[in-house]
Amino acid sequence: MNSETLKAPKHSDYAHRGCPVEATLDIIGGKGKGSIVCLLLDKTMRFNELQRSLDGISQRILTKQLRELEEAGLVHREVFPEVPPRVEYSLTDKGQSLRSLILELHKWGSENAL
What we know:
By secondary structure, this protein is α+β, with helices and mostly antiparallel strands. The protein has a single domain, classed as Winged helix-like DNA-binding domain superfamily/Winged helix DNA-binding domain (Arc Repressor Mutant, subunit A, Orthogonal Bundle), CATH 1.10.10.10. Helices cover 59% and strands 12% of the residues. The protein has a three-stranded antiparallel β-sheet with strand order 1-3-2. The radius of gyration is 16 Å and the shape is globular. The termini are far apart.
């Protein structure tokens, strides 16, 4: 097994294999990402609000997941030039397009996984 085999796949790798389900799970999978998207469906939130709402997620992990969601075009990060600086997170239109999927996952999880 070479080092190429051990690398995590990039979003475009799944598209090349023709599996949009895996591509979607790659983008929204990960510790807390689904919950982050779910929390941002109906409101804009500050970092500390998100962290308090996501029981047990560290600041480092939340920062990493927010950056990945921002890079994927799902989350918008707005920094206000105030002292101290205020940063707010919201879903982009692309992120909002996940609404029905996230709500169906929530419903399925409530009925089958809990």
